[in-house]
Write a structure and sequence with these properties.
Layout (H helix, E strand, L loop, with lengths): L2 E4 L2 E4 L3 H9 L2 E4 L3 H5 L1 H4 L1 H8 L3 E2 L4 H11 L8 H9 L10 E5 L2 H13 L9 E3 L11 H10 L3 E4 L6 H9 L7 E4 L3 H6 L7 H5 L3 H8 L1 H9 L3 H15 L1
Parallel strand pairs: 3-4, 3-8, 5-6, 5-7, 7-8
Antiparallel strand pairs: 1-2
């Protein structure tokens, strides 16, 4: 599997179609955002372990990709979590009963996402959905979710939760599910599609401007969040330049 190591993480550099195929083989798929890379990667060992050991790590952060190219001259494809989710949801196999299991962030948002999924032809009911509790600190585990997944045996699990938490939970589940389904950590991407969060046009996502859409939609929440990601520029530049010298 083609990868490029950035900040210690082996980021996937193949096509989106290849990433989808890898996911169907089972394992953990993550799409680390700029804020998570700038903050949790440095400060939360459980998060670092989860993303470093993921089976597929997507290049979601446009800033990371641009700075890495400037520092090294190497061009890596950017695959956002939203682009990946759109690709995997296009697979008709997911519309088979029992194929997918959806972990929702809240009951209210979960209902709206479920309504959207059902309108797209995905079978969604009490048997394949789960509203996650509030995961306060680290480590993160959820015995009830694990029990439900062992019973349902889906081919794909979608953790539609906050970045920084979903990856750690996904890594914990991967260690305990055999065979392991594809565990997809694309966070709010399904909420963008369902319209429960900022609607991100295709052009904005492909141009790396999804962060701007979120800031315009909910400035009090997202402007501080993305401001906190500014250290990522120095992190990627410094690590990449050191890598060239080594």
């Amino acid at each position: 599997m083609a990868c490029e190591r950035i900040l210690g993480i082996p980021f996937f550099t193949g096509s989106v179609e290849e990433a989808v195929a890898e996911t169907w083989r089972g394992g953990l798929v993550v799409a680390p955002s700029g804020p998570n890379l700038a903050n949790e990667l440095r400060n939360v060992p459980d998060y670092r372990r989860a993303v470093e050991n993921a089976d597929v790590a997507l290049t979601d952060s446009a800033v990371m990709v641009a700075v890495y190219r400037a520092a090294t001259g190497k061009s890596v494809p950017r695959h956002s979590g939203l682009k990946f989710l759109e690709a995997i949801l296009a697979d008709p196999a997911l519309k088979e009963p029992g194929a997918a299991f959806w972990v929702m962030p809240t009951e209210e948002e979960g209902r709206r996402i479920a309504d959207w999924l059902q309108a797209q032809g995905f079978p969604v009911d009490e048997g394949n959905t789960y509203v996650a509790p509030f995961y306060g600190g680290y480590p993160i585990k959820d015995e009830e979710l694990l029990r439900r997944l062992k019973s349902a045996k889906p081919g794909m699990v979608f953790l539609n939760l906050a970045g920084g938490k979903q990856e750690v939970l996904g890594a914990w589940l991967r260690e305990r599910l055999d065979p392991c389904p594809g565990i997809v950590c694309t966070g709010a991407a399904v909420a963008f599609l369902a319209g429960t969060q900022a609607k991100i046009p295709v052009w904005a996502d492909r141009s790396g401007l999804g962060w701007l859409m979120r800031c315009l939609y909910e400035p009090k929440k997202f402007i501080p969040r993305y401001w906190s990601a500014l250290p990522l520029i120095g992190m990627v530049w410094g690590a990449s330049r050191r890598g060239l010298r080594d």
